[in-house]
Amino acid sequence: MSLHPIIRALSQPLFAIILSLPALAQQPASPIPSTGHPDLDQYRTSRISIYTDDFGQLARYRDANATLAPPAAGENRVIFLGDSITDYWKLPDYFPGKPYLDRGIDGQSTPEMLVRFRQDVINLQPKVLVILAGTNDIAGVTGPTSNEDIEANYATMADLARAHHIRVVFASILPAHNYTHDAEESFALRPPARILALNKWLQDFCAKNGFVYLDYFHALVDERSMLKRTLSDDGLHPTDPGYKLMAPLAEKAIQKALAENSPR
């Protein structure tokens, strides 16, 4: 009995598999694991080039920083560092005539802010730094992040600022709401319990280390522990009435920081 027909029969499936390997290799793999939240998955996928090419988004303010003169004698320069809540805040409209610089970037988490901390904070020689961060860490925008990791990033920013004689104001994380359809997933990604826990940690950290704690949370929260519906359309970002409530609180915290002795 000839074995050639059997060998040919057995070899055909293997040959077909070998031929299919290049095609399989060309199939696009999902670059970012699913979080189970479609909107977040889509958002993270849209930012792949940021995560791989310029994680801290240093390009965003590089040119503006290069043209910025050093602070004038007696100038109380203030940097607002943060995410979209800071990015969307038109500071000149709320602090007219003040040397306050917005260095917020939409979608950023605390590790991204640390990457650009020297360029966007230290090199600009502010007297005061106002940090509003953490909501995107909780939401997992740059990956799952524990409260302990966020706290460590806060502490690192504080250490860097103090080493360069910059007074620090830590703002509380804002509450969120799900009163509108657009806000539902954003709210689900930001459990109120985590916001409360991080704010408590921040308040204690500031008290123990001589930093100023800026409590936006209690000015914006309603009786259901959510962001007041009248202060946000999307459940996360303040509208003009929200920023109007925040501005005097920020100014008071800045003046308190300026009145204190130089950072130790």
Report on the architecture of this protein:
The chain has 14 helices and 5 strands. It is an alpha/beta fold and 264 residues long. A 5-stranded parallel sheet has the order 2-1-3-4-5, sandwiched between helices. It has helices spanning 4-25, 38-46, 48-53, 59-66, 84-87, 91-94, 110-115, 117-120, 135-139, 147-163, 184-188, 192-209, 217-220, 240-259, and strands at residues 78-82, 100-104, 128-132, 167-171, 212-214. Helices cover 50% and strands 9% of the residues.
Provide a brief overview of the structure.
The chain has about 260 residues and is of the alpha/beta class. It has helices spanning about 5-25, 40-45, 50-55, 60-65, 85, 90-95, 110-115, 115-120, 135-140, 145-165, 185-190, 190-210, 215-220, 240-260; strands spanning about 80, 100-105, 130, 165-170, 210-215.
